[in-house]
Write a structure and sequence with these properties.
It is a single chain. It contains 10 helices and 13 strands. It is of the alpha+beta class. It has one domain. The strands form 3 sheets. Strands 2, 4, 5, 6, 7, 9, 10, 11 and 12 form a 9-stranded mixed sheet that branches. Strands 1-8 form a two-stranded antiparallel sheet. It has a two-stranded antiparallel ribbon with strand order 3-13. The longest helix has 23 residues.
Length: 297
């Protein structure tokens, strides 16, 4: 579904050709023509922002940078408003394999840090509850499903041939969605300890998911797509909530939660629980009404 984004193909032009072909062949158009064409215009606008970030040589951004402020409104130290964090009481209903209790004397490097965090989060998300006979898998909490498998989406990622201060590797392996709502939860790993507030990998992940998700909601009455990205950076976790109102993106960056393997098991456990609670959050807000952006934001 995301192939044409990477091939830089204009969706509106393609949509007009497809509709003209249906009309010429006397076949019924499966969607509302005007709504379909308008959605493809939105896809093309999102794609232009995506290409600006993709083609930019920088990886780390400030809210004041022109490439950011032209297309994004950035709100800092802000909790998500279209997602409700999983209550700690619900989390306590599940039995987890405990994290390794031994503290390290030295912190991992960027890539190794992310690899270890990835494994531990994956283990936590697949931990079964021993309190119910169904052995409900934790990642089924809230009816979230794997969007990459359902939509045939490639993993958003960027590898680098050689390390440099201006380039880092990132990947976004987990993308969860809901059957009847556009809300989407993303887990993204940024192999950098840079203190910069805004990361290239976070932006490209949000932009690419919003692009193809905009096609998924055609004909369903939704006016915007709330995205919650849980960003794992070397040394800390944080949330980034994003949505596109038709003209620009709004980004709500949460406060960073420290997570170092040199810290106590209690502190590390709190950080991992915080991440799991957000990954298994519940959707909020009326996505069929753009005014809810103002009322909730």
């Amino acid at each position: 579904m995301d192939q044409m984004l990477h091939e830089r193909k204009k969706q509106y032009i393609r949509a007009k050709i497809v509709i003209e072909k249906f009309i010429k062949e006397g076949k019924p158009i499966p969607v509302n023509k005007e709504e379909y064409l308008e959605a493809m215009k939105v896809c093309d606008r999102i794609a232009q922002i995506y290409y600006r970030i993709l083609d930019c040589p920088a990886c780390f951004f400030q809210a004041e940078d022109s490439i950011i402020k032209d297309d994004f409104t950035v709100i800092t130290n802000a909790e998500p408003v279209f997602f409700s964090q999983m209550p700690i009481a619900d989390l306590r209903e599940y039995t987890f394999e405990p994290l390794g209790s031994r503290n390290r004397f030295r912190e991992y490097g960027n890539e190794e840090y992310l690899s270890v965090v990835d494994i531990q989060i994956s283990n936590l998300l697949s931990t079964s509850s021993k309190e119910t006979p169904e052995y409900e898998v934790l990642h089924q909490y809230g009816n979230w499903h794997n969007e990459r498998a359902v939509r045939n989406i490639r993993m958003p990622l960027e590898l680098v041939k050689s390390r440099s201060p201006e380039r880092y590797e990132w990947r976004t392996p987990f993308i969860w969605g809901l059957k009847d709502l556009p809300h989407t939860v993303i887990l993204s790993f940024q192999a950098t300890s840079s203190p910069a507030p805004i990361m290239r990998g976070e932006l490209l992940s949000i932009l690419s998911v919003t692009w193809w998700k905009n096609k998924v909601i055609i004909g369903k009455g939704h006016k915007f797509i709330p995205i919650l990205l849980v960003s794992i950076r070397t040394g800390n976790f944080r949330t980034v909530e994003a949505y596109y109102d038709g003209s620009r993106f709004f980004l709500r960056y949460g406060k960073p939660v420290p997570m170092n393997f040199t810290e106590s098991i209690e502190d590390r456990t709190k950080a991992f629980e915080w991440a799991i609670q957000w990954l298994l959050s519940s959707p909020l807000g009326d996505t069929r009404n753009l005014e809810s952006i103002t009322s909730m934001g």
